[in-house]
Specification:
Largest sheet: 4 strands, parallel
Shape: globular
Strand order of the largest sheet: 3-2-1-4
Order of helices and strands: EHEHEHE
Distance between the termini: 22 Å
Length: 106
């Protein structure tokens, strides 16, 4: 059974909020890699090309689907689900970019 993690991400235009949201996303990706070592699919909204390139350079197990427009949470989850159904994955664990995973492998 092939598993992946799906993340819905929206980065607001306000610089402070964007920075905090970005930091949470980076922490989430590091935690997911450390604990699960699964591929990650991100449905990104309103990201810059710089942010996409940063993720691609630090995380080689991440696929980013870019949306310049704001889809809203329901629209983004629907789009992420469509990408999942078109993939070879059997199971997806869906997360929002601002969630936190606490704990260890033990």
């Amino acid at each position: 059974m092939t598993k992946c993690i799906g993340i819905v991400s929206y980065l607001p235009s306000d610089k402070k909020l964007r920075g905090r949201r970005w930091d949470k996303l980076i922490n989430l990706l590091y935690t997911c890699n450390k604990l699960f070592k699964l591929d990650v699919i991100i449905e990104s909204q309103c990201w810059s090309y710089f942010e996409i390139s940063v993720i691609k350079s630090y995380f080689n197990n991440v696929t980013i689907y870019y949306n310049q427009d704001k889809l809203g949470i329901v629209g983004a989850r629907k789009r992420l689900r469509e990408h999942f159904l078109a993939s070879n994955y059997d199971v997806i664990i869906m997360l929002d970019d601002d969630c936190e995973i606490k704990g260890t492998k033990e």
